[in-house]
Every structure is written in structure tokens, then in C-alpha cells.
Design a protein that fits this description.
The complex is a heterodimer.
Chain A: H1 6-10, H2 18-32, H3 42-57, H4 59-66, H5 105-111, E1 146-152, H6 154-159, E2 161-172, E3 178-189, E4 198-201, E5 217-223, E6 229-232, E7 235-242, H7 244-249, E8 251-255, E9 262-266, E10 276-278, E11 296-302, H8 310-322
Parallel strand pairs in A: 1-5, 7-11
Antiparallel strand pairs in A: 2-3, 4-5, 6-7, 8-9, 10-11
Chain B: E1 2-11, E2 14-16, E3 21-23, H1 24-30, H2 35-43, E4 49-50, E5 58-60, H3 62-77, H4 81-105
Antiparallel strand pairs in B: 3-5, 4-5
Helix pairs in contact in B: 1-2, 3-4
The chains are: A alpha+beta, B alpha+beta.
């Protein structure tokens, strides 16, 4: 198990005041919040900062952590010394999220798991559930909804696919202990899904309590970044390299699409960057919505052949001599 | 300790696409929040219901994304709902600008 330097993670000195720690946490939490930050490791950093704060904000936990000494280095192999926590009583000051499973082994070895974790069973109060008539024979509640992300290829949105996803959720076993339950679901990815859309699977969330109905599972669709296509809503973009003579004289060229190759006509005198639309070749419409398919936009990029041999150089020289062309005339030079 | 359940059945869910609308109940449950909380989001203008009467409110499926982001910002950063509404608008603007930037900067590569 790796030692974690919570002070270093928070960017504070070991003798920082509780107020300094709180300020550092708030700043870092804003910086790395996965909804706000675009840094690739934001989610990991956010959890790390949350864990460090969890340990340092509570004077009891902090004192216990400090007792391990200042000589430990982050990443160093660590095992808690026996009885290291003798004399400390953790009052289990609330885990922030319902997300304690996200804390590291290091944290759990020091402060335990569970504790104040609690089970947030029913979806927080209010008149949300609407089965008030059910209370007569004991407590009954609908299970919580769950959320997960499923990453697909752009091609899957064109053809439809199925994905097997494994979900982990903490549940209580018959003896009342928290166990991590893993389950694998095969889910149909319908043709025409778009980035950010969700698929709702009724009854695949948490089990209900006291015979209440199970919650739902929401799967958020995310496209794996593609090496050649770029997606915007239901439209798809591709940069298409073309030669100067194809651009100048016009041509018929092959263009890849997520649905297979197509032939496309390039008009004479096509400049770089002028979008050409292949109607209906974007992401297909999804069955129920009645919305038509998106379009595929082909963006030509003129690439010039290198003048790396005599013949090529001759051709460029010939153009230089015979073409009266100043690309900078609009700049007045 | 972990239990593993395999299920080979192919599940077909409901795609929440442009036509799909969610009820106040759907939305509050999907955010593990109360209906009152969702109503407050509406009052802040963070999400917009379709329909006049609260009892008939329906929500565009894109509201789910916004409401869940709102829930996380409030829970994790202690932002109040007015601040959440502002953050959501700014995040939208940033993502529009980023998409635009990505499209134009590809030509410079």
C-alpha cells in the first residue's frame, strides 16, 4: 500500500491551521471538480483532494495521521504500525458523499471504511416517491436510481451495438455487512444515439426496501474520441486531405464515412476549409424520435507535395514562373 | 467480499432522446433529490419545464444532465442554487467555445 502525503496533496504545510486547510480544500475542489475542470485527471485529483480533506479537517483524524510522522514520502510502501491508533477514538465524522468506496486503501487502513457511511436508501425525502399509501404495513421505499457511463465507438451509433457493462455497488448482505456487489449487464445500444444522451433501464437500480419497486439505471453515452471523425450533435466532421491539383481542377475522390467509403466530387477551385456536406451521412435518426439523420461534413485540407527531388522542384519553379498568383494581395503586400 | 451476478439477457432500455420527456418525479429521483429541490432549480431558471401547471410539468431530457451537474456542484462545492445556475450557464458557454475552438484550431495543425 502506498503512503499518501495528505499535506502535499492539499499544498499546505504540516502546521497549517484548520482554516488554511479548509481554504486550500475549497480552492482545489473548485479547480478539480469533474464538472468544471477539463484536466484529464480531474476526477482522480478531486477524489484525492476530498480524501486528504476528509483526513485533515477532523482534528482527531489529523492528529492520528500526524502521529505517523513526517518522514513518510508519498508513494512509499506503507503498513500501519500495530496499535498505531491506540488512544484515538474516531467519532466517524460524516463521509462527505455517499461515496466512501472511492477512498484509497491507505485511507481505509487508517480510518476504516463504513463508519459514518450510512446507507442513503430512499431518494431524499420530499414527496418524491409518491407511494404514501404504502406505509400501512411497514416501511416501503423505492430503490435508488443508479448512474453509469458507457463508452462506445462512433461506429456503434451508426450501426447499433450491444455492450456488456460491469457495475459495482455497495449492498448489505443478510448479516448486515456492507459488501460490494458486482453485476454484469448486457445492454443494447440503439442506433442513432448521441454523445451525452442517456438510456434508462427500468428496475436496474438499487433494489427497493420492504417490497418497494427497484430504482432505475441511467447509462450516459460517451463517444470514444475518434482518430479521424469529430462529432457535433448528430453531425460528423472529417478533415479530408486533397492535392493542389484536385483542389484546382476538381476531382472525384474517395471519402471514408463511419458507414463505409463513398465517392465525392470536388469542385474546381475548392479552397482549404470549405465545408462540403454529405446529406444524411451523419449519425442516423433514432427510431422513436422521428428526427432525421445528421449530416457528414467533409472539410478539405490542401496538402502540398514536398519538393524533395529535381522533378518536383522543376514543377514548382514552372508554377512560380508561369502563374501570376499572390496569396497576400488582400493583405496589401 | 463480492458477489458476482452474471446476466446474459440483452437489456433494451429507453433512449432519452430529443422527444423524450421526463416528469418531475423522474427528475428528482434521478438526482436523488426531492421534488422541492427540482422546483427550486426551476425557480432559479437553471432548468425549464414544459407546461404551465406544476402538476403537468415535463422536462426535456437534457434537463437531466443539468440537474445532475447542479446536484454535484451543490453537494461538492457548497454552491447555493443561484450560484449553481450561474455556473451551469458559464459551463455551457465554455463548452460552446471549446467546441468552436476545436473546430477552428484543427486547421492550424
Amino acid at each position: 500500500m502506498d503512503f499518501k502525503d495528505y499535506y502535499k496533496i492539499m499544498g499546505v504545510e504540516r502546521d497549517a491551521t484548520q482554516d488554511e486547510i479548509k481554504r486550500a480544500y475549497r480552492k482545489l475542489a473548485r479547480k478539480y471538480h469533474p464538472d468544471v475542470s477539463k484536466e484529464s485527471d480531474a476526477e482522480i485529483r478531486f477524489k484525492e483532494v476530498g480524501e486528504a480533506y476528509e483526513a485533515l479537517k477532523d482534528p482527531e483524524k489529523r492528529a492520528a495521521y500526524d502521529q505517523l510522522g513526517a518522514n513518510w514520502k508519498a508513494g512509499q510502501d506503507f503498513n500501519p504500525p500495530p496499535d498505531w491508533d491506540a488512544g484515538f477514538e474516531f467519532s466517524g465524522g460524516g463521509f462527505t458523499g455517499g461515496d466512501s468506496a472511492a477512498y484509497s486503501d491507505f485511507f481505509e487502513s487508517l480510518f476504516g471504511r463504513g463508519g459514518a457511511q450510512g446507507f442513503r436508501s430512499a431518494a431524499g425525502g420530499g414527496y418524491s416517491s409518491g407511494h404514501s399509501g404504502a406505509y400501512g404495513g411497514g416501511f416501503q421505499s423505492r430503490g435508488e436510481d443508479h448512474h453509469a457511463k458507457v463508452i462506445i465507438d462512433l461506429e456503434d451509433a451508426y450501426q447499433g451495438a450491444s455492450r456488456s457493462i460491469t457495475l459495482q455497488s455497495p449492498e448489505l448482505d443478510s448479516s448486515g455487512h456492507v459488501v460490494t456487489k458486482k453485476r454484469t449487464l448486457n445492454v443494447k445500444i440503439p442506433k442513432g444515439v448521441k454523445q451525452g444522451q442517456r438510456i434508462r433501464l427500468s428496475g436496474q437500480g438499487s433494489a427497493g426496501i420492504g417490497g418497494g419497486p427497484a430504482g432505475d439505471l441511467y447509462l450516459e453515452i460517451e463517444f470514444k474520441p475518434h482518430s479521424i471523425y469529430h462529432v457535433d450533435g448528430h453531425d460528423v466532421y472529417i478533415d479530408l486531405p486533397i492535392t493542389p491539383w484536385e483542389a484546382a481542377l476538381g476531382a472525384s475522390v474517395k471519402v471514408p464515412t463511419p458507414d463505409g467509403k463513398v465517392d465525392m466530387k470536388i469542385q474546381p477551385n475548392t479552397p482549404s476549409g470549405r465545408k462540403m456536406r454529405l446529406k444524411g451521412r451523419g449519425i442516423p435518426g433514432s427510431g422513436s424520435s422521428g428526427q432525421g439523420p445528421g449530416d457528414l461534413y467533409v472539410v478539405p485540407q490542401i496538402t502540398i507535395p514536398p519538393a524533395d527531388n529535381e522533378a518536383a522542384k522543376e514543377l514548382y519553379k514552372k508554377m512560380q514562373q508561369e502563374l501570376d498568383y499572390n496569396p497576400r494581395s488582400r493583405l496589401g503586400v | 467480499m463480492s458477489h458476482k451476478i452474471m446476466n446474459n439477457e440483452l437489456l433494451t432500455g429507453l433512449l432519452l432522446d430529443e422527444q423524450c420527456q421526463l416528469s418531475l418525479n423522474d427528475l428528482s429521483r434521478a438526482c436523488s433529490s426531492s421534488a422541492e429541490w427540482v422546483i427550486e432549480l426551476v425557480e432559479q431558471g437553471a432548468i425549464e419545464p414544459i407546461g404551465q401547471q406544476q402538476a403537468q410539468w415535463r422536462f426535456h431530457s437534457s434537463s437531466l444532465q443539468r440537474a445532475r451537474t447542479a446536484m454535484r456542484l451543490q453537494r461538492d462545492l457548497g454552491v447555493n442554487l443561484a450560484g449553481v445556475a450561474l455556473a451551469l450557464d458559464l459551463l455551457d458557454e465554455i463548452s460552446t467555445l471549446r467546441a468552436h475552438l476545436q473546430k477552428t484550431s484543427r486547421f492550424d495543425e
